[in-house]
TrEMBL record:
Protein name: Disulfide oxidoreductase YuzD
Source species of the chain: Salimicrobium jeotgali
Lineage, broadest ranks: Bacteria, Bacillati, Bacillota, Bacilli, Bacillales
Pfam families, A to Z: DUF1462
Entry superkingdom: Bacteria
InterPro entries cross-referenced by the UniProt entry: DUF1462 (IPR009190), Thioredoxin-like_sf (IPR036249), YuzD-like_sp (IPR038218)
């Protein structure tokens, strides 16, 4: 079976979300996700993107974050929200597996 390339996008900012004071920052979350996902699934079929909400062109997600409809860091897997604020690995893993990834053996 040919696996598709899966894109994980993290929307965030250098400053912490006001509601996320005790949570890790966006960049820390982005790096933590890369490490955790890489250990479980490898990185061959995964593309990672980080989007700074204050410098990126506005899109539907940056707009919703700015309007406090969504918290950041916001994690998307193939354009679907997999977590926000303080994302949970279990949810991100479920989204990855839905797109055909499976855990590496060993």
């Amino acid at each position: 079976m040919n696996k598709e390339n899966v894109t994980i996008t993290v929307y965030g900012a250098d400053q912490r979300c006001a509601s996320c004071v005790n949570a890790p920052g966006s960049k820390e979350t982005y790096e933590w996700l890369q490490a955790a996902i890489g250990r479980k699934y490898g990185n061959e079929e995964i593309t990672y993107r980080y989007i700074d909400i204050f410098t990126a062109e506005e899109d539907e997600y940056t707009e919703k974050i700015m309007e406090d409809e969504l918290f950041y860091p916001l994690v998307l897997v193939e354009g679907e929200i997999a977590g926000e604020g303080d994302p949970r690995l279990k949810s991100v893993y479920q989204h990855l597996e839905k797109h055909g990834l499976s855990a590496q053996e060993g």
